[in-house]
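Subject: for your reference before the review

Hello V.,

The reviewers asked for a structural picture of the protein, and I figured it would be easier to keep everything in one thread rather than splitting it across files. Below is the amino acid sequence we used in the manuscript, unchanged from the supplementary table.
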Amino acid sequence: RTVRNSLRTGGEIIDIRKLGRIEKPAPIVALLDISGSMSEYTRLFLHFLHAITDARKRVSVFLFGTRLTNVTRALRQRDPDEALASCSSSVEDWAGGTRIATSLHTFNQLWARRVLGQGAIVLLISDGLEREADAKLAFEMDRLHRSCRRLIWLNPLLRYSGFEAKAQGIKMMLPHVDEFRPVHNLTSIKGLIEALSSPPPAHHRSLIRSVA
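And here is what came back from the structure prediction:
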């Protein structure tokens, strides 16, 4: 349009036409806890992550129990059942123990620089029941928080109205997240989608404990 308009004036006066700013969705990086205590929700979360992987280009997904596994390529398969089966076959510690600090350390060391650029949003999906809760967990959470634009912790234990952060692992993780949200059913997932589609909250941390 700029070139066409300049031809009308012999190129003397050029009115530059701009497309305007093009907003791109921020990359999403999901870290999903697949330990035994999370087994009731694992399939629901994997279906959700498959759906957003299919809908958005820049989505990376990692599963962890006692170790970290990158399943991004597996979830890109169009058929959800085939994608979930591929994830299952690539993971060695399904429904086992939980080593959140060790898994976060692996992510921070090997993957953070590759996938957390361009204002990435991190979804940490876990009940926070770490069996080795110590200073290492707080350190790795802080490192992850500093590397992304927004760290959202999704915890199915928030479905309980009387939930209290008593577990040592949860206490160590909470200071390093921007949002703390329930995720246990389709209603809570819908709320998450709405949150991802809106600007970040004004406050640095938003501890959301309402359960639909």
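For the response letter, the relevant points are probably these. Residues 53 and 76 are 6 Å apart (CA to CA). The chain has a mean pLDDT of 85.

Happy to draft the paragraph if you're swamped.

O.
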